[in-house]
Amino acid sequence: MNRDNRLRIMVLILGLLAILQFFIPHNTGRWINRFLLDWLVILEFFALIAGIVALVRGQLISLRKTQGNARIYPGLFFVGLAIMIVTGLVGPIAEGSLFDTCFRWFLQPLQSTLFSLLAFYMAYAAFRSFRLKSAPATILLLSAVIMLMGRMPLGERVIPNISLFANWIVRVPNVGSTRGLWIGIGLAGIATAMRVIIGIEGPASWRRR
Amino acid sequence: MDYPALVASISGIDRRVIYLVIALSIMVPLLLASYARVEPEIETVSFYERIQDLSEGDIILLSVDYMPGSASELEPMITAFLKQVFSKHIKIVALSLNAQGTGLLESSIENVAAEYGKNYGDDWVFLGYRPSSPAVIISLSGSPHSLFPEDPRGNELSDLPLTTDLNGFEDFNAIVAIASGASAQDWVIYGYERYTGPILVGLSGGIGPAFQSFYDTHHVKGIIAGLQGAAEYEQLVGIRGEALRAVFAQSVAHLVFVGLIVVGNLSFLAALWIERAMG
Amino acid sequence: MSLEPGVLIPAIVTLIVFSILYKDNPLFRVAERLGVGMAAGYALILILRTGILPRLSGAVHNIADPANYLLLISVVLGAGFIFSSIGKPKTLSRYAIASAAAIGAGLAIPYLTQTLVLAQMKATMVPVGLSTKAGFNALVIAFCVLTGMSYFSFSKEPKGMRALISDMGLYTLMIAFGTTFGHFAMSRITLLINRFLFLIRDFLHIIT
Fold it and tell me: How many other β-carbons are positioned within 10 Å of the β-carbon of residue C4?
């Protein structure tokens, strides 16, 4: 039996066990259920660590490729990484520790402010690009404007009863459209999951080239 | 008047002017006004009333998934929620589904718990962080002890008075999921089938509309969405928090945002009209 | 102005990040790169100290339980993920990825069916009509669901009536996307308000 077939059989068995755990209340079923879930959580932990390792690898490659002063920027990545790893491994990580202080004094304000820049960029993009060029664009624009006006107290003073209309849009047409999207997502998710379990689809790394 | 030049200058305005307009639209209201009054929506009232219906000694499972980037929307909700819960002497078992939010969550609970004289182990427990929310949710429906044998402080869950007898979802009187990511959706998809009690969600504004269909199908029994929802909730709980402080500034910023869209479209339509008039 | 380090340093970081709005500058790039490294380190430490180590120390203390032997096998398999991230796909990483994908896919099927498909379909199939508000709303919802789903049907090119229904579906989807966009804009403005509130209240003490 070749490697691909061994993988497919393993995927089929694990996938079927995971589906069956939904239906079987028996003690053995519960034991298998617990084993599968614990297995998945541990694997996901390592997947997250693998993501960080891949990021470090990418920065190392960048550091090797760049020359002169431009090396400062990939170098700073490693400085930041080292700071958090050293403070996190050597001392405590609870509130008030050096690790937590580095997070609260530098990382938290940095990330919060970076995210908040999007407000400026969205405003500029809305001014430059949000145009009444076609019927779908007009509908999108109008519903966005009604949301922005209707969901805040001041909007009522500019256009009376706008909030009633905004609430109706959120609770009726929006529900209808997102319900259609959820059904579609559900059906597509089920189809993809079936394809993974029966071996038609899978991560590229397990297929022979 | 040179209309083509005027229209061109409006369309081609420097981006930094737009940035300045947005910045002023937020700063000036913050300087001028303080706390606003809001009209709570039915979804927020449902959230509040479900918690009010619980009794002293009941236990809530609190699941939080947020990053520093979404803290400004979710922290007011979390703080108001903790105040409502601790004032009613309800107990909390909390977990984090996002690594970066773990420290923020634990310190938020610690600060409010200290205010109400609540003790770790008796009144609240923090289980820690686990990835893969579907696996965590399904696993918790059985028992927290298998997935969380120890808390991050090194205590075994079987040694803490609050968690020693926990056997699964049936021991929780409500599940509250506060999220900026996919975990709230996972609680609805994976948690609803295993839990007969109320699932309540607090969401960052962007994902709020998508959950209306779950509220409609009674998969969630209450929603707090975004800053507006947080402000409504703070008002219901009776505290003057960050969300109520920010509502007036948010309103003005929205009006300016809409104004920018209107001006942009007017200049676009004017440019089209001039182009046609000039042949 | 507060000179307390716990306020001053975050304020300086905030202003450095805001400086990008005026012009790209070296200070911003330094802060950005340092931040990326620190974020990776922060996540790694939290995953290890609040996630993996408490989970596995529980397993090691109760090693007599057969379930914990299997757990330690998953640790070995999980290490395979790290091999694949350093560009060397080997057998271990293939089995790790395959098992995670299989379990995740298997878990998803029954739950997606129940919640996203059946429950949503059931909620759509309610009495409709024009004489009551509830009936009218149900009619609008059913219309939006059906036309929205028909827009995504690509097996045959839409012509005639099908094209009309598909177009109506596009318009109803635009209502949902516009609603979501409006809420996203609100969400980003909230983040900005929080930063400004920090600067003018906690740092500059202009307001209380």
Answer: 10
Q: What are the distances in angstroms from CA B233 to CA B36, B41, B230?
A: 13, 9, 5
Q: B31 at the C interface (CB within 8 A)?
A: yes
* Listed residue (A117, C177, C30) closest to B69, CA to CA: A117
Per-residue pLDDT of chain A (209 residues; tens, 9 = 90+): 677 788 889 999 999 999 988 888 777 777 788 888 888 888 888 888 888 988 999 899 888 888 887 788 889 999 999 999 999 999 888 888 899 999 999 999 999 999 999 999 999 999 988 888 889 999 999 999 999 999 888 888 888 889 999 999 999 999 999 999 999 999 999 999 999 999 887 765 455 54
Are B176 and B270 in the same domain? Answer: no
Q: Count Cβ atoms below 10 Å from residue C64 Cβ, excluding itself.
A: 7
Residue-wise over A19-54: b if at least 16 C-beta within 10 A, else e? Answer: bebbeeeeeeeeebbbbbbbbbbbbbbbbbbbbbbb
Residues B126 and B108 both lie in one domain:
yes
Residues B215, B183, single domain; the answer is yes
Collapsing DSSP to helix, strand or coil, B223 comes out as: strand
Number of structural domains in chain B: 2
B124 and B24 within one domain: no
Distance from CA of C123 to the nearest CA of A (A): 9
Same-domain check for residues B108 and B221: yes
B257 contact residues in C (CB cutoff 8 A): 185, 189
> At B118, is the secondary structure helix, strand, or coil?
coil
Do both B52 and B28 map to the same domain?
no
Q: Distance between CA atoms of C44 and B133, rounded to whole angstroms?
A: 18
Cα distances from B120 to residues A54, A83, A184, B163, B175, in angstroms, run 38, 30, 44, 11, 19
What is the domain extent for residue B13? 3-35+247-277
The dihedral through the CA atoms of C194, C195, C197, C203 has a sign that is positive
Among B35, B102, B228, the residue to mutate for chain C (most C Cβ within 10 A): B102
Instruction: Answer yes or no: are the C-beta atoms of C140 and A173 closer than 8 Å.
Output: yes
Q: Which residues of A touch B37 (CB under 8 A)?
A: 153
Are the C-beta atoms of residues A100 and A91 closer than 8 Å to each other? no
| Same structural domain, B22 and B78 | no
**CB–CB contact A127 B261 (8 Å):** yes
Same domain, residue pair B55 and B185: yes
Residues forming a β-bridge with B201: B177, B223
* pTM (predicted TM-score): 0.90
B189: nearest CB among C46, C116, C190: C116
